[in-house]
Amino acid sequence: MTNNRLVALAASVAAAAFLACPAAVQAGGQFNAALIASNCAVCHGPGGNSAGFTPSLDKLTKEEIADNLRKFRSGEKPSTIMRRFAKGFSDAQVDAIAAQLGK
Amino acid sequence: MSKHSATRNTRREFLQLVGAAGVVSALTLTGRVSLAGSSGRVVVVGGGFGGATAARYVKKFDPGIDVTLIEPNIEYVTCPFSNAVLGGIREMTAITHAYKGLSKAGVKVLHDSVSAVDPVKKTLATKGGDSIAYDRLIMSPGVDFRFEDVPGYDEAATRMVPHAWKAGQQTVNLRRQLMAMDDGGLVIIASPGNPFRCPPGPYERASLIAYYLKHNKPRSKLLLLDAKSKFSKMPLFLEGWAIHYKNIEWVAGDKGGEVIEVDAKNRVAITDFDKHKAAVFNFIPPQKAGAIAHGAGLTDKSGWCPVDFSTFESTIHKGIHVIGDAAIVTGMPKSGNAANSQAKACAVAVAALLKGDEPTTPMTSNTCYSLITPEYGISVTAVWTASPDGYKKNSGGVSPKGQDAAFRKLEATYARGWYANISRDIWG
To answer: Which domains does chain B have, with CATH numbers?
Structure first.
Protein backbone atom coordinates (compact mmCIF):
# COMPACT_ATOMS: atom_id res chain seq x y z
CA MET A 1 0.00 0.00 0.00
CA THR A 2 1.39 3.38 -0.98
CA ASN A 3 1.67 6.29 1.39
CA ASN A 4 -1.03 8.10 -0.55
CA ARG A 5 -3.37 5.19 -0.10
CA LEU A 6 -2.59 5.07 3.60
CA VAL A 7 -3.38 8.77 3.92
CA ALA A 8 -6.63 8.28 2.00
CA LEU A 9 -7.55 5.32 4.19
CA ALA A 10 -6.76 7.28 7.34
CA ALA A 11 -8.93 10.12 6.11
CA SER A 12 -11.85 7.81 5.37
CA VAL A 13 -11.46 6.14 8.77
CA ALA A 14 -11.52 9.56 10.39
CA ALA A 15 -14.64 10.46 8.41
CA ALA A 16 -16.26 7.17 9.40
CA ALA A 17 -15.38 7.85 13.01
CA PHE A 18 -17.01 11.24 12.76
CA LEU A 19 -20.17 9.75 11.31
CA ALA A 20 -20.21 6.85 13.72
CA CYS A 21 -19.46 8.92 16.78
CA PRO A 22 -20.43 12.56 16.48
CA ALA A 23 -20.80 12.93 20.24
CA ALA A 24 -17.11 12.36 20.86
CA VAL A 25 -16.02 14.63 18.05
CA GLN A 26 -18.28 17.36 19.33
CA ALA A 27 -17.40 16.89 22.99
CA GLY A 28 -16.26 20.14 24.52
CA GLY A 29 -17.82 22.12 21.66
CA GLN A 30 -20.66 24.52 22.19
CA PHE A 31 -23.30 22.33 20.59
CA ASN A 32 -23.69 18.88 19.09
CA ALA A 33 -24.61 19.17 15.42
CA ALA A 34 -25.67 15.54 15.07
CA LEU A 35 -28.00 15.91 18.03
CA ILE A 36 -29.66 19.07 16.71
CA ALA A 37 -30.04 17.59 13.20
CA SER A 38 -31.49 14.35 14.60
CA ASN A 39 -34.50 16.34 15.76
CA CYS A 40 -35.38 17.22 12.15
CA ALA A 41 -36.23 13.52 11.62
CA VAL A 42 -39.53 13.77 13.49
CA CYS A 43 -41.13 15.73 10.63
CA HIS A 44 -38.74 15.13 7.72
CA GLY A 45 -37.94 11.44 8.32
CA PRO A 46 -34.77 9.60 9.36
CA GLY A 47 -31.81 11.21 7.57
CA GLY A 48 -34.22 13.74 6.05
CA ASN A 49 -35.99 11.05 4.00
CA SER A 50 -39.69 11.78 4.48
CA ALA A 51 -42.45 9.17 4.28
CA GLY A 52 -44.70 11.80 2.74
CA PHE A 53 -46.83 14.85 3.66
CA THR A 54 -43.66 16.84 4.53
CA PRO A 55 -40.71 17.68 2.25
CA SER A 56 -37.69 15.35 2.11
CA LEU A 57 -34.37 17.02 2.82
CA ASP A 58 -31.97 14.31 1.69
CA LYS A 59 -31.95 15.39 -1.97
CA LEU A 60 -31.00 18.96 -1.10
CA THR A 61 -27.43 20.22 -0.95
CA LYS A 62 -25.95 21.68 2.23
CA GLU A 63 -26.11 25.10 0.62
CA GLU A 64 -29.82 24.71 -0.22
CA ILE A 65 -30.69 23.61 3.30
CA ALA A 66 -28.74 26.47 4.89
CA ASP A 67 -30.29 28.97 2.46
CA ASN A 68 -33.81 27.70 3.16
CA LEU A 69 -33.28 27.83 6.94
CA ARG A 70 -32.02 31.43 6.72
CA LYS A 71 -34.97 32.45 4.53
CA PHE A 72 -37.45 30.78 6.87
CA ARG A 73 -35.76 32.50 9.80
CA SER A 74 -36.00 35.98 8.25
CA GLY A 75 -39.55 35.39 7.01
CA GLU A 76 -38.43 35.89 3.39
CA LYS A 77 -39.73 32.38 2.69
CA PRO A 78 -43.27 31.84 4.04
CA SER A 79 -43.90 28.84 6.29
CA THR A 80 -46.40 27.41 8.74
CA ILE A 81 -43.89 26.25 11.35
CA MET A 82 -40.34 26.59 10.07
CA ARG A 83 -39.91 30.26 11.00
CA ARG A 84 -40.73 29.46 14.61
CA PHE A 85 -38.13 26.69 14.46
CA ALA A 86 -35.35 28.38 12.50
CA LYS A 87 -35.35 31.42 14.78
CA GLY A 88 -33.98 29.11 17.49
CA PHE A 89 -30.70 28.54 15.65
CA SER A 90 -27.57 30.69 15.25
CA ASP A 91 -25.78 31.00 11.89
CA ALA A 92 -23.22 28.45 13.04
CA GLN A 93 -26.00 26.05 14.02
CA VAL A 94 -27.81 26.54 10.70
CA ASP A 95 -24.60 25.66 8.82
CA ALA A 96 -23.96 22.66 11.08
CA ILE A 97 -27.50 21.30 10.58
CA ALA A 98 -27.12 21.76 6.82
CA ALA A 99 -23.78 19.94 6.88
CA GLN A 100 -25.40 17.01 8.71
CA LEU A 101 -28.42 16.66 6.42
CA GLY A 102 -27.35 17.98 3.01
CA LYS A 103 -25.75 16.01 0.19
CA MET B 1 -35.22 -20.38 38.67
CA SER B 2 -31.61 -19.75 39.70
CA LYS B 3 -29.92 -16.52 38.72
CA HIS B 4 -27.35 -18.49 36.74
CA SER B 5 -29.83 -20.34 34.57
CA ALA B 6 -31.88 -17.17 34.20
CA THR B 7 -28.92 -15.42 32.68
CA ARG B 8 -28.39 -18.27 30.22
CA ASN B 9 -32.05 -18.15 29.28
CA THR B 10 -31.78 -14.45 28.68
CA ARG B 11 -28.92 -14.91 26.26
CA ARG B 12 -30.77 -17.64 24.40
CA GLU B 13 -33.91 -15.50 24.18
CA PHE B 14 -31.85 -12.59 22.92
CA LEU B 15 -30.38 -14.76 20.18
CA GLN B 16 -33.85 -15.91 19.19
CA LEU B 17 -35.21 -12.39 19.26
CA VAL B 18 -32.37 -10.72 17.47
CA GLY B 19 -31.89 -13.54 14.98
CA ALA B 20 -30.05 -13.00 11.75
CA ALA B 21 -30.26 -9.22 11.98
CA GLY B 22 -28.25 -9.41 15.21
CA VAL B 23 -25.50 -11.37 13.52
CA VAL B 24 -25.27 -8.81 10.75
CA SER B 25 -25.12 -5.89 13.15
CA ALA B 26 -22.56 -7.72 15.30
CA LEU B 27 -20.33 -8.00 12.24
CA THR B 28 -20.86 -4.34 11.47
CA LEU B 29 -20.05 -3.58 15.07
CA THR B 30 -16.67 -5.28 14.97
CA GLY B 31 -15.58 -2.84 12.32
CA ARG B 32 -16.75 0.13 14.30
CA VAL B 33 -15.86 -0.70 17.87
CA SER B 34 -12.28 0.44 17.44
CA LEU B 35 -13.42 3.62 15.69
CA ALA B 36 -15.96 4.48 18.32
CA GLY B 37 -13.44 3.51 20.93
CA SER B 38 -15.96 2.73 23.60
CA SER B 39 -18.09 -0.03 24.93
CA GLY B 40 -20.38 -0.64 27.81
CA ARG B 41 -23.81 -1.91 28.48
CA VAL B 42 -26.85 0.31 28.37
CA VAL B 43 -30.25 -1.01 29.41
CA VAL B 44 -33.35 0.97 28.47
CA VAL B 45 -36.64 0.34 30.25
CA GLY B 46 -39.83 1.23 28.40
CA GLY B 47 -40.44 1.04 24.64
CA GLY B 48 -42.52 4.18 24.10
CA PHE B 49 -41.56 7.53 22.56
CA GLY B 50 -38.74 8.10 25.06
CA GLY B 51 -37.33 4.61 25.61
CA ALA B 52 -37.45 3.26 22.07
CA THR B 53 -35.81 6.47 20.79
CA ALA B 54 -33.11 6.29 23.47
CA ALA B 55 -32.28 2.66 22.66
CA ARG B 56 -32.04 3.38 18.93
CA TYR B 57 -29.98 6.55 19.32
CA VAL B 58 -27.49 5.22 21.87
CA LYS B 59 -26.73 2.53 19.30
CA LYS B 60 -26.66 5.09 16.50
CA PHE B 61 -24.41 7.57 18.29
CA ASP B 62 -22.05 4.79 19.46
CA PRO B 63 -22.47 1.38 17.81
CA GLY B 64 -19.89 -0.10 20.20
CA ILE B 65 -22.34 0.07 23.09
CA ASP B 66 -24.38 -3.03 23.90
CA VAL B 67 -28.02 -1.82 24.11
CA THR B 68 -30.93 -3.79 25.54
CA LEU B 69 -34.51 -2.51 25.50
CA ILE B 70 -36.91 -4.05 28.01
CA GLU B 71 -40.60 -3.62 27.21
CA PRO B 72 -43.43 -5.91 28.29
CA ASN B 73 -45.64 -5.44 25.23
CA ILE B 74 -44.98 -6.97 21.82
CA GLU B 75 -46.50 -3.90 20.18
CA TYR B 76 -46.79 -0.27 21.20
CA VAL B 77 -49.95 1.76 20.64
CA THR B 78 -49.27 5.49 20.47
CA CYS B 79 -51.29 8.11 22.29
CA PRO B 80 -50.63 10.57 19.44
CA PHE B 81 -53.36 10.00 16.83
CA SER B 82 -55.40 7.86 19.24
CA ASN B 83 -57.83 10.81 19.29
CA ALA B 84 -58.16 10.29 15.53
CA VAL B 85 -59.21 6.69 16.26
CA LEU B 86 -61.83 8.02 18.70
CA GLY B 87 -63.06 10.41 16.00
CA GLY B 88 -63.36 7.54 13.50
CA ILE B 89 -60.75 8.89 11.07
CA ARG B 90 -57.92 6.41 11.75
CA GLU B 91 -57.70 2.67 12.50
CA MET B 92 -55.99 1.17 15.56
CA THR B 93 -53.57 -0.72 13.30
CA ALA B 94 -52.28 2.61 11.99
CA ILE B 95 -51.18 3.67 15.50
CA THR B 96 -49.68 0.30 16.49
CA HIS B 97 -45.97 -0.39 16.11
CA ALA B 98 -43.79 -3.49 16.58
CA TYR B 99 -40.12 -3.59 17.59
CA LYS B 100 -38.56 -5.33 14.57
CA GLY B 101 -37.04 -2.08 13.36
CA LEU B 102 -35.17 -1.66 16.65
CA SER B 103 -33.87 -5.23 16.47
CA LYS B 104 -32.62 -4.52 12.96
CA ALA B 105 -30.88 -1.42 14.27
CA GLY B 106 -28.86 -3.65 16.63
CA VAL B 107 -30.91 -3.16 19.80
CA LYS B 108 -31.61 -6.33 21.80
CA VAL B 109 -35.32 -6.25 22.54
CA LEU B 110 -36.49 -8.21 25.57
CA HIS B 111 -40.24 -8.48 26.14
CA ASP B 112 -40.42 -8.66 29.92
CA SER B 113 -41.27 -6.43 32.90
CA VAL B 114 -38.78 -5.04 35.37
CA SER B 115 -39.58 -6.09 38.94
CA ALA B 116 -36.68 -4.47 40.81
CA VAL B 117 -33.75 -2.13 40.23
CA ASP B 118 -30.59 -2.14 42.36
CA PRO B 119 -28.84 1.19 41.71
CA VAL B 120 -25.83 0.23 43.88
CA LYS B 121 -25.05 -3.10 42.21
CA LYS B 122 -26.27 -1.68 38.87
CA THR B 123 -28.50 -4.63 38.14
CA LEU B 124 -32.17 -5.08 37.51
CA ALA B 125 -34.45 -8.07 37.89
CA THR B 126 -37.26 -8.98 35.53
CA LYS B 127 -40.56 -10.71 36.24
CA GLY B 128 -39.37 -13.44 33.87
CA GLY B 129 -36.63 -14.23 36.38
CA ASP B 130 -33.63 -12.66 34.67
CA SER B 131 -30.95 -10.57 36.33
CA ILE B 132 -29.39 -8.00 34.00
CA ALA B 133 -26.34 -5.84 34.70
CA TYR B 134 -25.90 -2.35 33.27
CA ASP B 135 -23.31 0.41 33.15
CA ARG B 136 -25.99 3.04 32.49
CA LEU B 137 -29.74 2.56 32.84
CA ILE B 138 -32.20 4.76 30.95
CA MET B 139 -35.76 4.66 32.22
CA SER B 140 -38.74 5.99 30.30
CA PRO B 141 -41.61 4.86 32.52
CA GLY B 142 -44.35 7.14 31.23
CA VAL B 143 -47.23 7.99 33.54
CA ASP B 144 -49.51 6.27 35.97
CA PHE B 145 -52.73 7.56 37.48
CA ARG B 146 -53.35 9.04 40.91
CA PHE B 147 -56.35 6.82 41.63
CA GLU B 148 -55.81 7.67 45.31
CA ASP B 149 -56.79 11.31 44.61
CA VAL B 150 -60.21 10.66 43.05
CA PRO B 151 -62.91 8.96 45.13
CA GLY B 152 -64.84 6.46 43.02
CA TYR B 153 -62.20 6.03 40.33
CA ASP B 154 -59.89 3.02 40.30
CA GLU B 155 -58.61 0.37 37.90
CA ALA B 156 -61.96 -1.47 37.93
CA ALA B 157 -63.83 1.79 37.16
CA THR B 158 -61.80 2.30 33.97
CA ARG B 159 -63.98 -0.27 32.19
CA MET B 160 -67.19 1.73 32.61
CA VAL B 161 -65.46 5.10 32.54
CA PRO B 162 -62.35 4.74 30.36
CA HIS B 163 -59.43 7.16 30.68
CA ALA B 164 -57.99 6.21 27.27
CA TRP B 165 -54.91 8.17 28.38
CA LYS B 166 -52.72 5.17 27.69
CA ALA B 167 -53.62 4.05 24.20
CA GLY B 168 -54.65 0.48 23.45
CA GLN B 169 -57.60 -1.43 24.84
CA GLN B 170 -58.80 1.73 26.60
CA THR B 171 -58.96 3.53 23.24
CA VAL B 172 -60.98 0.68 21.74
CA ASN B 173 -63.31 0.68 24.76
CA LEU B 174 -64.04 4.41 24.51
CA ARG B 175 -64.52 4.24 20.72
CA ARG B 176 -67.02 1.36 21.12
CA GLN B 177 -68.96 3.27 23.77
CA LEU B 178 -69.17 6.32 21.47
CA MET B 179 -70.38 4.19 18.58
CA ALA B 180 -72.96 2.36 20.73
CA MET B 181 -74.35 5.59 22.24
CA ASP B 182 -77.80 6.80 21.14
CA ASP B 183 -78.01 10.02 19.17
CA GLY B 184 -78.74 12.70 21.77
CA GLY B 185 -76.56 11.13 24.47
CA LEU B 186 -74.21 13.40 26.45
CA VAL B 187 -70.45 12.77 26.21
CA ILE B 188 -68.37 14.07 29.11
CA ILE B 189 -64.60 14.49 29.04
CA ALA B 190 -62.93 15.44 32.33
CA SER B 191 -59.51 17.09 31.94
CA PRO B 192 -57.00 17.10 34.85
CA GLY B 193 -54.89 19.83 36.44
CA ASN B 194 -51.23 20.37 35.51
CA PRO B 195 -48.85 18.66 35.07
CA PHE B 196 -50.09 15.82 32.91
CA ARG B 197 -49.22 13.93 29.71
CA CYS B 198 -49.92 15.82 26.48
CA PRO B 199 -51.30 19.24 27.54
CA PRO B 200 -53.32 19.85 24.30
CA GLY B 201 -54.56 16.23 24.23
CA PRO B 202 -57.92 16.64 26.00
CA TYR B 203 -58.84 19.52 23.67
CA GLU B 204 -57.89 17.67 20.50
CA ARG B 205 -59.90 14.74 21.85
CA ALA B 206 -62.92 16.99 22.46
CA SER B 207 -62.53 18.30 18.88
CA LEU B 208 -62.37 14.91 17.18
CA ILE B 209 -65.15 13.38 19.28
CA ALA B 210 -67.25 16.48 18.47
CA TYR B 211 -66.40 15.84 14.80
CA TYR B 212 -67.71 12.28 15.11
CA LEU B 213 -70.86 13.46 16.91
CA LYS B 214 -71.53 16.24 14.41
CA HIS B 215 -71.51 13.75 11.53
CA ASN B 216 -73.02 10.70 13.25
CA LYS B 217 -74.97 11.80 16.36
CA PRO B 218 -76.05 15.37 15.54
CA ARG B 219 -78.35 15.64 18.60
CA SER B 220 -75.51 14.77 21.00
CA LYS B 221 -73.41 17.29 22.95
CA LEU B 222 -69.94 17.15 24.45
CA LEU B 223 -69.35 18.62 27.91
CA LEU B 224 -65.68 19.28 28.65
CA LEU B 225 -65.21 19.62 32.41
CA ASP B 226 -61.81 21.09 33.26
CA ALA B 227 -59.73 21.39 36.41
CA LYS B 228 -57.90 24.26 34.68
CA SER B 229 -59.02 27.72 33.59
CA LYS B 230 -56.42 28.01 30.83
CA PHE B 231 -55.07 25.34 28.54
CA SER B 232 -52.53 24.68 25.79
CA LYS B 233 -53.21 26.40 22.42
CA MET B 234 -56.43 27.74 24.00
CA PRO B 235 -57.06 30.69 21.63
CA LEU B 236 -56.54 28.40 18.61
CA PHE B 237 -58.86 25.71 19.95
CA LEU B 238 -61.55 28.26 20.83
CA GLU B 239 -61.24 29.80 17.34
CA GLY B 240 -61.54 26.37 15.67
CA TRP B 241 -64.48 25.33 17.87
CA ALA B 242 -66.32 28.59 17.04
CA ILE B 243 -65.97 27.74 13.34
CA HIS B 244 -66.73 24.01 13.46
CA TYR B 245 -68.54 22.95 16.62
CA LYS B 246 -71.70 24.16 18.28
CA ASN B 247 -71.77 20.88 20.22
CA ILE B 248 -68.86 21.54 22.64
CA GLU B 249 -69.39 23.20 26.02
CA TRP B 250 -66.21 23.86 28.03
CA VAL B 251 -66.48 24.50 31.78
CA ALA B 252 -63.32 26.11 33.23
CA GLY B 253 -61.84 25.17 36.60
CA ASP B 254 -62.70 28.58 38.06
CA LYS B 255 -66.33 28.04 36.96
CA GLY B 256 -66.62 24.75 38.83
CA GLY B 257 -65.31 22.47 36.09
CA GLU B 258 -63.06 20.28 38.20
CA VAL B 259 -64.36 16.72 38.67
CA ILE B 260 -63.58 15.74 42.25
CA GLU B 261 -65.41 12.43 42.43
CA VAL B 262 -66.59 9.79 39.97
CA ASP B 263 -69.68 7.58 40.17
CA ALA B 264 -68.46 5.07 37.63
CA LYS B 265 -71.43 2.70 37.77
CA ASN B 266 -73.85 5.48 36.79
CA ARG B 267 -71.34 7.44 34.68
CA VAL B 268 -71.78 10.53 36.84
CA ALA B 269 -69.14 13.29 37.10
CA ILE B 270 -69.26 15.07 40.46
CA THR B 271 -67.93 18.64 40.83
CA ASP B 272 -68.13 21.02 43.78
CA PHE B 273 -71.37 22.41 42.41
CA ASP B 274 -73.03 19.80 40.23
CA LYS B 275 -73.56 16.21 39.26
CA HIS B 276 -73.44 15.57 35.50
CA LYS B 277 -74.79 12.28 34.16
CA ALA B 278 -73.14 11.10 30.95
CA ALA B 279 -74.03 8.53 28.33
CA VAL B 280 -70.28 8.19 27.70
CA PHE B 281 -67.83 9.42 30.33
CA ASN B 282 -64.12 9.80 29.57
CA PHE B 283 -62.30 10.65 32.80
CA ILE B 284 -58.67 11.69 32.36
CA PRO B 285 -57.23 11.26 35.85
CA PRO B 286 -54.49 13.27 37.56
CA GLN B 287 -51.10 11.68 36.95
CA LYS B 288 -47.68 10.80 38.35
CA ALA B 289 -44.56 9.05 37.08
CA GLY B 290 -45.02 5.42 36.01
CA ALA B 291 -45.11 2.85 38.83
CA ILE B 292 -41.66 1.48 38.06
CA ALA B 293 -40.10 4.90 38.79
CA HIS B 294 -41.71 4.88 42.24
CA GLY B 295 -40.55 1.29 42.82
CA ALA B 296 -36.97 2.21 41.92
CA GLY B 297 -37.04 5.20 44.29
CA LEU B 298 -36.55 7.73 41.51
CA THR B 299 -39.45 10.05 42.41
CA ASP B 300 -39.59 13.00 44.79
CA LYS B 301 -42.59 14.16 46.82
CA SER B 302 -44.17 15.62 43.66
CA GLY B 303 -44.55 12.08 42.29
CA TRP B 304 -42.22 12.82 39.34
CA CYS B 305 -38.48 12.17 38.78
CA PRO B 306 -35.92 14.95 39.32
CA VAL B 307 -33.03 14.84 36.82
CA ASP B 308 -29.91 16.74 35.81
CA PHE B 309 -30.93 18.81 32.79
CA SER B 310 -27.85 18.19 30.67
CA THR B 311 -27.64 14.40 31.08
CA PHE B 312 -31.11 13.38 32.37
CA GLU B 313 -29.29 11.46 35.11
CA SER B 314 -31.44 11.07 38.19
CA THR B 315 -30.44 13.43 41.01
CA ILE B 316 -31.46 10.64 43.40
CA HIS B 317 -29.68 7.60 41.92
CA LYS B 318 -26.47 8.01 39.90
CA GLY B 319 -26.15 5.82 36.82
CA ILE B 320 -29.88 5.92 36.13
CA HIS B 321 -31.27 8.39 33.59
CA VAL B 322 -34.97 9.25 33.40
CA ILE B 323 -36.59 10.73 30.29
CA GLY B 324 -40.06 11.50 28.97
CA ASP B 325 -43.30 12.18 30.81
CA ALA B 326 -42.00 10.76 34.13
CA ALA B 327 -39.08 13.20 34.37
CA ILE B 328 -39.17 16.74 35.71
CA VAL B 329 -37.74 18.64 32.74
CA THR B 330 -38.40 22.27 33.59
CA GLY B 331 -39.43 24.28 30.55
CA MET B 332 -40.47 21.34 28.37
CA PRO B 333 -43.98 19.84 28.08
CA LYS B 334 -44.82 16.19 28.69
CA SER B 335 -45.24 15.15 25.07
CA GLY B 336 -44.21 12.27 22.82
CA ASN B 337 -42.01 14.57 20.74
CA ALA B 338 -40.42 16.06 23.86
CA ALA B 339 -39.64 12.50 25.05
CA ASN B 340 -38.11 11.70 21.65
CA SER B 341 -35.92 14.81 21.79
CA GLN B 342 -34.90 14.23 25.42
CA ALA B 343 -34.02 10.63 24.50
CA LYS B 344 -31.62 11.81 21.80
CA ALA B 345 -29.98 14.30 24.17
CA CYS B 346 -29.76 11.58 26.82
CA ALA B 347 -28.26 9.14 24.30
CA VAL B 348 -25.49 11.63 23.44
CA ALA B 349 -24.80 12.17 27.15
CA VAL B 350 -24.74 8.46 27.96
CA ALA B 351 -22.36 7.74 25.05
CA ALA B 352 -20.06 10.54 26.25
CA LEU B 353 -20.17 9.45 29.91
CA LEU B 354 -19.33 5.84 29.01
CA LYS B 355 -16.26 7.11 27.20
CA GLY B 356 -15.27 9.34 30.09
CA ASP B 357 -15.96 12.49 28.05
CA GLU B 358 -17.57 15.66 29.32
CA PRO B 359 -21.20 15.84 28.07
CA THR B 360 -22.06 18.78 25.77
CA THR B 361 -24.90 21.20 26.48
CA PRO B 362 -27.92 19.66 24.76
CA MET B 363 -30.51 21.38 22.61
CA THR B 364 -33.98 19.87 22.33
CA SER B 365 -37.13 20.63 20.39
CA ASN B 366 -40.81 19.80 20.24
CA THR B 367 -43.44 19.98 17.55
CA CYS B 368 -46.97 19.26 18.62
CA TYR B 369 -49.84 19.31 16.17
CA SER B 370 -53.50 19.01 17.11
CA LEU B 371 -56.33 18.27 14.71
CA ILE B 372 -59.56 20.19 15.20
CA THR B 373 -61.04 18.50 12.12
CA PRO B 374 -59.28 16.10 9.72
CA GLU B 375 -58.54 19.15 7.55
CA TYR B 376 -57.91 21.78 10.25
CA GLY B 377 -54.62 21.60 12.14
CA ILE B 378 -52.92 23.83 14.72
CA SER B 379 -49.42 23.60 16.15
CA VAL B 380 -47.06 24.60 18.92
CA THR B 381 -43.32 24.28 18.63
CA ALA B 382 -40.15 25.18 20.48
CA VAL B 383 -36.36 24.88 20.41
CA TRP B 384 -34.61 24.80 23.79
CA THR B 385 -31.08 24.86 25.20
CA ALA B 386 -30.30 23.20 28.53
CA SER B 387 -29.25 25.30 31.51
CA PRO B 388 -28.74 24.43 35.17
CA ASP B 389 -32.27 25.74 35.87
CA GLY B 390 -34.04 23.87 33.10
CA TYR B 391 -34.63 24.18 29.39
CA LYS B 392 -34.55 27.77 28.12
CA LYS B 393 -36.58 28.47 25.02
CA ASN B 394 -34.59 29.76 22.01
CA SER B 395 -37.68 30.15 19.86
CA GLY B 396 -41.13 28.77 19.26
CA GLY B 397 -44.78 29.46 19.91
CA VAL B 398 -48.18 28.55 18.54
CA SER B 399 -49.32 28.92 14.94
CA PRO B 400 -51.06 32.24 14.23
CA LYS B 401 -54.79 32.78 14.66
CA GLY B 402 -57.01 34.07 11.88
CA GLN B 403 -55.44 31.97 9.11
CA ASP B 404 -57.40 30.76 6.09
CA ALA B 405 -58.57 27.21 5.40
CA ALA B 406 -55.52 26.50 3.19
CA PHE B 407 -53.12 27.27 6.07
CA ARG B 408 -55.09 25.05 8.48
CA LYS B 409 -55.24 22.26 5.93
CA LEU B 410 -51.47 22.46 5.48
CA GLU B 411 -51.00 22.15 9.25
CA ALA B 412 -53.31 19.09 9.24
CA THR B 413 -51.23 17.59 6.41
CA TYR B 414 -48.01 18.28 8.30
CA ALA B 415 -49.55 16.66 11.39
CA ARG B 416 -49.88 13.44 9.38
CA GLY B 417 -46.31 13.88 8.15
CA TRP B 418 -45.08 14.33 11.71
CA TYR B 419 -46.79 11.10 12.76
CA ALA B 420 -45.53 9.08 9.81
CA ASN B 421 -41.97 10.27 10.24
CA ILE B 422 -41.58 10.26 14.02
CA SER B 423 -42.96 6.70 14.01
CA ARG B 424 -40.24 5.66 11.54
CA ASP B 425 -37.62 7.57 13.54
CA ILE B 426 -38.56 5.52 16.62
CA TRP B 427 -39.92 2.10 15.58
CA GLY B 428 -39.24 1.98 11.83
So the answer is: 3-142+290-427 (3.50.50.60), 145-283 (3.50.50.60)
